[in-house]
Each structure stands twice: as C-alpha cells, then as structure tokens.
Design goal:
about 80% helix; about 0% strand
C-alpha cells in the first residue's frame, strides 16, 4: 500500500511555490461555508440569500482570513488526489509558458553574444 501512495505522488518533498487553482478553490469553498454558517447563526435561511451576495461576502471573508490559503495548501500537500491535481496543473502551466519564454530567452542569449 505504501508503494501505491508513493507512485501516485513521488515528489512530495518538492515545494509548491505557486498557489494552485485547486488550493484557491478549496480556500474559496471554506470561505463560502464560513459565510453560510454565519448566516445560519443569524437565523437567516441560506436559500433565501442570493448566491451573488454569498460570493461577495465569501470574497471579503477570504481577504480578511488569508490563513484559509495555508489550510488549503496543507490539504493539497498531504492529500494524494489533490497533490496529483496540483502537479498536473503545474505541468500544464509549464507547457503553456515554455513556448512563450523559450524564444525570449533565446533572443536574449543571442543579443548578449552579439554585443560582446
């Protein structure tokens, strides 16, 4: 069983430097749930509140509680499914940026060698 977990995510020691979309989604989900709990505590039925209002309150809640991103990142780091999702997202991000960055770096290298 340990080998199966290891094969799912062999790079668990590699730090994730960019907050992946899955972590942002988790943090947003936590914020929406917190806003809904606040509304319920006030005696308001959540089904009677427009979802746009809940989203706006959740965005503000997320700005006030940036620790939710830390919680979400910890889940992404420790849960194999979320970790695999974040690694896939990072590979896709690198694939998208490689064609854009590659020629830029090549032109810089060529420009530097010509100026010497």
């Amino acid at each position: 069983m340990a080998q199966a977990t290891q094969s799912l995510s062999p790079n668990q020691d590699v730090p994730i430097l960019v907050i992946p979309g899955i972590a942002r989604s988790l943090a947003r989900h936590f914020a929406i749930n917190a806003v809904k709990e606040q509304l319920r505590a006030q005696g308001v039925r959540v089904t009677h509140v427009p979802y746009a209002d809940i989203n706006a309150q959740a965005a503000e809640y997320l700005r006030q509680h940036p620790a939710l991103f830390d919680e979400a990142m910890e889940i992404v780091r420790t849960h194999p499914w979320y970790r695999a999702w974040a690694e896939k997202e990072e590979r896709e991000r690198q694939r998208q940026w490689r064609p854009l960055i590659g020629p830029f770096l090549l032109t810089n290298v060529l420009h530097r060698t010509r100026s010497k």
